[in-house]
Amino acid sequence: MLYIGVCFVFLVALDICPIDTKALYRRCLALEQTERHEDAYRDARKLIQLDPKNTAIQPVLRRLHAVIQDKVCIELVDIISGGVCYSVGYIFLSFSLCLCNTIQ
């Protein structure tokens, strides 16, 4: 609950000054804690564009990228394996997981 309030505070701060890198970084961390990974990733990418040498955001960006990539792979597996028989679904599942691991 605390992080939701924090997100709102930084939303207001970023409305006033959209290029405030500290507010963007802190909102990114708060969004990550509330499991709003896509929004946090968007903030992290924007922060890297504003401040490419920012070393604090780089591990956060890598972490968020991995989480989002895993979500995409899971969704892909669900789409591919949905509605097919178990054995064929298993083959597609195995292929999809290999594909996702290769992309990373």
Textual characterization of the structure:
With 104 residues, this protein is mostly helical. The protein has a single domain (2-103), classed as Serine Threonine Protein Phosphatase 5, Tetratricopeptide repeat (Alpha Horseshoe), CATH 1.25.40.10. It has helices at residues 2-16, 21-33, 37-50, 57-81, 86-103. It is globular.
Short description:
By secondary structure, this protein is an all-alpha fold. It has helices spanning 2-16, 21-33, 37-50, 57-81, 86-103.
Structural descriptors:
single chain, 104 residues, mainly alpha, Serine Threonine Protein Phosphatase 5, Tetratricopeptide repeat, 5 helices, globular
Proportion of residues in helical segments = over 70%
Number of helices: 5
Count of individual beta strands: 0
Please identify the structural class as seen in this structure. Answer: mainly alpha
Mean pLDDT: 79
- Unreliable residue stretches: 83-104
Give the amount of beta strand, in percent: under 5%
- What sequence of helices (H) and strands (E) makes up the elements? HHHHH
- What is the top-level CATH class? Mainly Alpha
Fourth CATH level, the homologous superfamily: Tetratricopeptide repeat domain
Identify the CATH architecture: Alpha Horseshoe
Distance between the termini: 33 Å
| Biggest beta-sheet profile | none
Number of individual domains: 1
In angstroms, what is the radius of gyration? 18 Å
CATH topology: Serine Threonine Protein Phosphatase 5, Tetratricopeptide repeat
User: Based on CA inertia axes, which overall geometry fits?
Assistant: globular
